[in-house]
Design goal:
Strand content: under 5%
Number of strands: 0
Shape: globular
Largest sheet: none
Helix content: over 70%
Distance between the termini: 55 Å
Number of helices: 9
C-alpha cells in the first residue's frame, strides 16, 4: 500500500525537468526584473557602490530560494544566465553589468556546491567574495575595460574589499533566512505536489507575466 501511494505521488523525470525549468525561468526573471528596475534606478541616481551591494543581496536571496526549488548543481548559474537575458531585453547594453550578474550566480553556485548546501552563512560569504573577485579580475585583466584598467589593481582591491565585504556580510545573513523561508513555503505547498496545483499554476502565471513584460519592452 505504501509503495502504491509513493508511486502515485512520485513525479516522472520528464515532469520534474519541466518544473525545474519553470522555476529557473521564474527566478531568472525575478532577478532580472530587480536589475532592470531597482538597478536601473540606483545607477541612474549615481548610487553605483550602493547598487552593487543591494543588487547582490537581492540576487542571493533569489538564488537561495531558487536552490531550494531546484536542488541541482548548475541551477544557480542557469538562473543568472536568464537574469542576464532579462536585463538585456529591458536595459541598454552594458557588458560589465551582464558579466557581473553571471559571475555572481556562478560564485553562488560554486560556493553552494563546495559546501554541499551546508553552512548557509558561509555560502553567503564565500559566494559573494568569489563573484565580486571574479568580476573585478576578469573585467580588468581579461576584458580590459578602460574604466577598470585605467586604475588597475588598486580598483580591484577596493571593489572586493569594500563593496564585496559589505555585500558578503549582508548575504551571510540573507542566505540562511531565505533558505528557511523557502523551505517552509515549499513544505506548505507540498514537495511532491503534481503539476496543476495552485502553487504550480501561480508560478506559471508569474513566469509568463515576467517574460511577457520583458519581450514587450522590445516592441
Amino acid at each position: 500500500m505504501v509503495m502504491v501511494t509513493s508511486c502515485a505521488i512520485a513525479e516522472r523525470p520528464a515532469t520534474m525537468r519541466k518544473k525545474y525549468m519553470l522555476w529557473i525561468l521564474l527566478f531568472g526573471g525575478l532577478w532580472g526584473l530587480s536589475e532592470a528596475l531597482l538597478g536601473g534606478w540606483m545607477y541612474g541616481a549615481g548610487m553605483r557602490q550602493a547598487a552593487a551591494v543591494v543588487l547582490a543581496a537581492v540576487a542571493f536571496g533569489i538564488l537561495t530560494v531558487g536552490r531550494v526549488y531546484v536542488p541541482v548543481a548548475g541551477s544557480s548559474t542557469a538562473i543568472a544566465a536568464l537574469a542576464m537575458l532579462f536585463k538585456f531585453l529591458n536595459e541598454p547594453f552594458f557588458a560589465c553589468h551582464l558579466l557581473a550578474i553571471f559571475l555572481l550566480g556562478a560564485g553562488y553556485d560554486a560556493a553552494y556546491s563546495l559546501a554541499r548546501g551546508r553552512g548557509k552563512p558561509l555560502i553567503g560569504l564565500a559566494g559573494t567574495y568569489l563573484g565580486f573577485a571574479l568580476f573585478a579580475v576578469i573585467i580588468t585583466y581579461v576584458v580590459r575595460y578602460s574604466y577598470w584598467i585605467s586604475v588597475g589593481w588598486p580598483k580591484v582591491l577596493r571593489y572586493v574589499a569594500l563593496s564585496g565585504s559589505i555585500a558578503a556580510a549582508c548575504n551571510a545573513a540573507i542566505v540562511p533566512v531565505a533558505d528557511r523561508l523557502a523551505r517552509r513555503l515549499r513544505a506548505r505547498a507540498g514537495r511532491t505536489a503534481p503539476v496543476g496545483t495552485w502553487a504550480f499554476r501561480t508560478a506559471c502565471a508569474a513566469t509568463l507575466a515576467l517574460w511577457a513584460f520583458a519581450l514587450i519592452q522590445q516592441l
